[in-house]
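Write out this protein's structure.
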Amino acid sequence: MSPPESEKNNRSSLWEPTPSHIPPTALDLLKNYSQIPSANLLPHIIAIRDRAWLIFPYPCIGWFHFLDISISLHHSYPRILASLKSPHADKKLLDLGTCLGQDVRKLVHDGAPARNLYGTDLKPRFLDLGYELFNDKNTLNSHFFVADVLIEDGWSEVEGQMDFIHASSLLHLFDWETQIGICKRIVRLLKPQTGSTVFGRMTGNQVARSVQHETVFGAAWRHNEVSFRRMWDIVGEDTGTKWKVWVEIGGFVKRQNDHFDNDGVRRVSFEVIRE
């Protein structure tokens, strides 16, 4: 069932009725991992997206960005995948803000041990819809759990256990101080050793600044390279740790009449490795 017209109209700039295209990576995942017939793919995707939109109207849902499978687009993906697949390495990865768990499924499809993959989200219904989208409720033995990145409860079983944390489309939802707090939590979730890594992507800006986020109804900080590096300097100072920071500022696909439609908006990819 599609969201009511009032819901779509309230977020018209964040909504597309159908995906403009289905990326090849998503097609491969849904056909060959989920075994969904080609004729059913488009209605299946739209039906799941419409239900996800009613849970929370994130732009990545309204625009079908979950089909990007963003983890596989990151420059470090081949290296991290190889590390996860390495025999007897027993490396673990947490997908922070996993939403429908699409990136976890991509890792499993590419050969990473499912038992060593974790995904967490604030909304339990996103996790349930992920099983429906990928048709793997009875076969996937990865670990999904509900937790709020802004509070202490819910993290004790994974704290200090992760080799890698993937955090895409997450930090840019929050203001400067909150992002620093989230990064400190990431430090606590990662193993306290050289090589522990957080990586992902987010929306940034040529000139770092605070904006009003249309979805979360509050101030959100958009980074450029300088401000992102400064944030990790502060995180390192406050936690007594040192980090090697890689940042790449890319372009952004503009949409007519939406709140990303200005020349300063950029896609920011990052990788932060403990020294």
